[in-house]
UniProtKB/TrEMBL annotation:
InterPro entries: Tscrpt_reg_PadR_N (IPR005149), WH-like_DNA-bd_sf (IPR036388), WH_DNA-bd_sf (IPR036390). Signal peptide: none annotated. Pfam families: PadR. Residues 16-91 form the Transcription regulator PadR N-terminal domain. This is Putative PadR family transcriptional regulator. It comes from the Bacteria. PANTHER family: TRANSCRIPTIONAL REGULATOR YQJI (PTHR43252:SF7). Gene3D superfamilies: Winged helix-like DNA-binding domain superfamily/Winged helix DNA-binding domain.
Length: 208
């Protein structure tokens, strides 16, 4: 199982260890719990990925078989539990991730840094489309939190949703303001007829 440069295991492994730190579970129960808590948005995986991760964690001694049960004629169910080593790895991983602020490279930042290369109106159209998607995501996240509260789910199980909602709302507000400034020509653009940047930019040899 690969580790990141600080020694933390992959996201799905952290989810599995975190679930088993609560109580012993069967792999499918782990998968269902992540879906119910919407933790499937924290890492890309399917049910098969969960089973594969469980096998690898067991081979590393981070989890172990707790018991094997059978209900009537149904197949046996293997229940897993976290080991002391697994608990130590989980604790250390969470400490690393919660404390660090790594340099990330979001695509949005990259696109914004070069957006001036597109026509002003095209950027307005694209960011408006993005706003629609972000607002839909925000509504979806907010509804999920409201539903969790209505079910009496402790907030500790959806702190990530609160962070996502706050981040989305902040980005939405910033993009709304940016769009107003771009539409109002408060920000100079390369396709402006009177762009001072183009006047000041050195000409290429072929343009002389």
């Amino acid at each position: 199982m690969g580790l990141d440069r600080d020694g933390a295991p992959p996201p799905v492994a952290i989810l599995v260890l975190g679930l088993l730190a609560e109580r012993p579970m069967h792999p499918y129960e782990m998968f269902q719990t992540t879906i119910e808590r919407r933790e499937d948005r924290l890492a890309k995986f399917r049910a098969g990925t969960m089973y594969h991760t469980v096998d690898r964690l067991e081979s590393k001694g981070l989890i172990e078989i707790h018991e094997v049960t059978r209900d009537g004629n149904r197949p046996e169910r293997t229940i897993y539990a976290i080991t002391d080593t697994g608990r130590a790895v989980l604790d250390r991983s969470l400490e690393i991730i919660l404390a660090r602020h790594p340099q990330e490279y979001p695509e949005l930042y990259l696109a914004l840094s070069e957006a001036h290369g597109l026509p002003r109106q095209r950027v307005v159209e694209l960011l408006t489309d993005r706003l629609d998607l972000m607002r839909a995501d925000l509504e979806d996240q907010t509804t999920a939190v409201d539903d969790a509260r209505a079910r009496g789910t402790p907030e500790m199980f959806y702190l990530d949703a609160g962070c996502r909602i706050a981040t989305l709302q902040t980005q939405i507000d910033w993009i709304v303001d940016l769009l107003d400034r771009i539409r109002g020509s408060e920000i100079e653009w390369l396709d402006d007829p009177d762009s001072t940047y183009l006047e000041a930019a050195p000409q290429k040899a072929g343009d002389r």
